[in-house]
Design a protein that fits this description.
With 161 residues, this protein is α+β, with helices and mostly antiparallel strands. The chain has one domain: Gcn5-related N-acetyltransferase (GNAT) (Aminopeptidase), CATH 3.40.630.30. It is built from four helices and eight strands. Strands 1, 2, 3, 4, 5, 6, 7 and 8 form an eight-stranded mixed beta sheet that branches. Strand 7 and strand 8 form a beta hairpin. The termini are far apart.
Length: 161
């Protein structure tokens, strides 16, 4: 049974990969990334990395989720991972929202994602051009493009124009 999550037990920070301390880097590379992924390698060799990353913690020590973004093939990216004990609770969404708030991500620009699970996160935070890439052999290929217009509120009778 999952432990209930309450707002007072979460802590969140936004930083860059190069500033991660050894404990955070070890947690990310040992259990919060896919083995052999480019991001895992970047965190392992983090010195000098300017990749923005947001961490959501339970208390002050355990990483519940992280999200990061960098430029890839001319697109901004959303990458993230949530610890299995904290999935379906909005932790990764909160981390991505922190990157948006820090202007590391722009919802009005196209975004590349690498997991279908991130589609809902990106959509709920107002991204209007979402591109899903999937790994085929050794290459990431575009498999889905979702484009939608942001909601536009209008007053009755056109008074908003």
């Amino acid at each position: 049974m999952k432990k209930p999550l309450t707002p007072h037990c979460l802590e969140a920070i936004t930083t860059v990969v190069g500033s991660l301390d050894d404990l955070d880097a070890k947690a990310i590379t040992s259990s919060l990334t896919r083995a052999g992924s480019e991001f895992q390698v970047e965190v392992m060799n983090r010195e000098g990395s300017r990749t923005p990353i947001a961490l959501v913690r339970e208390g002050s020590w355990r990483i519940a989720a992280w999200a990061a973004s960098h430029q890839w093939r001319g697109l901004q990216t959303i990458e993230g991972f949530t610890h299995p004990d904290f999935r379906r609770r909005g932790c990764c969404r909160a981390a991505v929202a922190m990157l948006v708030a820090s202007r590391s991500l722009d919802p009005d620009s196209p975004v590349a994602i690498f997991s279908p699970d991130c589609i809902g996160v990106a959509h709920s935070l107002g991204f209007t051009d979402i591109r899903l890439y999937e790994l085929f052999g050794d290459d990431w290929r575009l498999s889905l493009v979702l484009e939608h217009k942001p909601l536009r509120w209008s007053l009755p009778g056109g008074a908003d124009e």
